[in-house]
Amino acid sequence: MKPRKAQRFGLRFRIFFSGGTLEGEGTVTDISKTGCKVECDTEVRPGTDLELHVFMPDHNWPMKVEQAKVRWVRGRTFGLEFTQLRPTERERLRRFTANLELGRGH
After folding, report:
1. I need a labelling partner for 37 at 20 to 30 A (CA). Which of 16, 68, 80, 102 fits?
2. Neighbours of 80 (CB within 10 A)
């Protein structure tokens, strides 16, 4: 088992995703600077590239991830690696996770 690239934080908020003909909505159950874990009823496959709209509690509008790759799937849960983010969105995610690290919550 490879060690995690970044600390993960358990919380719950909405996510919309799409890629090709696939569209879905789910719940983020943990997040880090490099990815997140999602629970949903939509079937996804490892290796699929998705565009994400993540409704984090730090803003009224979603964080847009231009590209994320499905790294693993277990039942109704799957892991995403953020592979392409605009610099402003990457900074927003960095600040969000830094606040969680410091215990300032969401």
Report:
1. 102
2. 27
Angle at alpha carbon of residue 50, lines to 2 and 6, rounded to 5°:
30
Q: Structural domain boundaries of the chain?
A: 9-100
CB 78 within 8 A of CB 38: yes
Domain 9-100 CATH (choose: 2.40.10.220, 3.30.200.20, 3.30.465.10, 2.40.50.140)? 2.40.10.220
Confidence (pTM):
0.87
Please write the tens of the pLDDT for every residue from 35-63: 999 999 999 999 999 999 999 988 889 99
